[in-house]
Amino acid sequence: MQTVELITRKRDGGTFSTEEIRWLIAGYTQGTIPDYQMAALLMAIYLRGMDARETSDLTLAMVNSGEQLRVNTQVSPVVDKHSTGGVGDKVTLAVAPLVAACGVAVGKMTGRGLGHTGGTVDKLESVTGFHVELSRADFMRILQEHQIVLAGQSSDLAPADGKLYALRDVTGTIESIPLIASSIMSKKMAVGASHLLLDVKFGSGAFMKNREQARQLALAMVEIGRAANLHTVAAITSMEQPLGYAIGNAIELREAIDILHGRGPADVSELCYHEAAELLVMTGKAADLETADQLVTAAIQSGAAVKKLAEVIAAQGGDARQIENPDLLPTAPIRVMVPAPQSGYIAAINAEGIGLASMSLGAGRFKKGDPVDHRTGLLLKAKIGDYVQAGAPLIEIHARNPEEAQNIQSALLACYQWSERPVQVLPLICDIIRPQK
Ligand code: URA
């Protein structure tokens, strides 16, 4: 096989066979296909796309490029969830313990934040001593003993994806549905849960800027799951404004603990309870969403859900007292309240802008490997649709020093649009995509 023939074929709108895709991925992983040829190939895929069969083949080839954990051979059912990322997205922190408290195991590898979106690993590392770098044996042991494990993404799984993603990042080929779908699904399939729930976000704070793009990505991933016998469901959810009120690390973990106590903000709580219920139905733990909702409510009211979070924190070396008493979590030394510059209804809050402001406080990273400050972030005091009086609290800044708090104030206010008339709030969950039977 000649790489150049495959590049020109895709450039001209052709398709690849299963064998050709395996050959390309094996060659690139082993270094026999150079970056410049793979870059050209990625651009051809970006421009011409891939059909469902090619996308599934690409995903499987990436799964086979490294080790596989096959968690469902040891614990079954075992669920995984993935969010395409957003601002204030603490959903995993609440859904994982909720589902585990309802008796379904959760084995999850999760990423660090980059750019304006946060990462679950960084939020968890707000807890003193908590560690996410687990050996394969520890991952399995914690999963078996506690029905829940929340680890960092291992570079031994789907290594072709790591290499391809780095190349896509510098060649303008990130925003391709088959490439994103195969990248996400290869990492999930290499872990090997039996059921996967995807939260595909769209809006100013998300990767996919509009609902139709999110739907296409969701359909592609559900189809990859179906073809690989991995029961996959995707929720399409809005990221037109940050989720909940808290944006940062420890501050988001605090909000997740509130959600597990049943006293979190309405929007993000509803999303967490729905995702948990969906997973209980997918795995057959509940016959329908109504029964699942009852299980979820019982886990919250009995305290089992928050206890499960404390349990996994302790199992991974963290100080569980910080979950039992969130006042023990790290807090920023400076708090500055930004008042509303005018009276009116909030018509829009630019999630990306809010995420970038939180990053400038140290809560996120500008480049891979940057340290994050777990103490800093933002606490919104009002959301879209709320009426706010001029001078009333709008956003609380949690900063390391007064200068950093001062520097972001005008950028923060520029994220808001105001209306004199009441504003309609669109639903957070727009659609659920389930596999075709
Ligand atoms: N997240 C991934 O893991 N891969 C992509 O290609 C995009 C987002």
Summarize the structure.
The protein is an alpha/beta fold. The chain contains 18 helices and 13 strands. The site of uracil (URA) has 5 residues, from helix 9.
Describe this structure in words.
The protein is α/β, with parallel strands linked by helices and about 425 residues long. The chain folds into three domains: about 5-50, Transferase, Pyrimidine Nucleoside Phosphorylase, Chain A, domain 3 (Up-down Bundle); about 70-325, Pyrimidine Nucleoside Phosphorylase, Chain A, domain 2; about 330-420, Aldehyde Oxidoreductase, domain 3 (Alpha-Beta Complex), CATH 3.90.1170. The chain is about 45% helix and about 15% strand. It contains 18 helices and 13 strands. It has a six-stranded mixed beta sheet with strand order 3-2-1-4-5-13, sandwiched between helices. Strand 1 (about 80-85), helix 5 (about 90-100) and strand 2 form a beta-alpha-beta unit. Helix 2 (about 20-30) runs parallel beside helix 4 and helix 12 packs across helix 13 (about 290-300). The mean pLDDT is about 95. The structure holds uracil (URA). Uracil binds next to helix 9. This is Pyrimidine-nucleoside phosphorylase. Belongs to the thymidine/pyrimidine-nucleoside phosphorylase family.
Topology:
Blueprint: H1 3-11, H2 18-30, H3 35-48, H4 52-63, E1 78-83, H5 91-101, E2 105-110, H6 120-124, H7 136-146, E3 148-152, H8 159-169, H9 177-191, E4 195-202, H10 211-227, E5 231-238, E6 246-248, H11 250-260, H12 266-282, H13 289-301, H14 304-315, H15 321-324, E7 334-339, E8 344-349, H16 351-360, E9 377-380, E10 387-388, E11 393-399, H17 402-407, H18 409-413, E12 416-419, E13 429-433
The chain binds uracil.
Family: Belongs to the thymidine/pyrimidine-nucleoside phosphorylase family.
GO cellular component, one term: cytosol
Domain Pyrimidine nucleoside phosphorylase C-terminal: 345-419
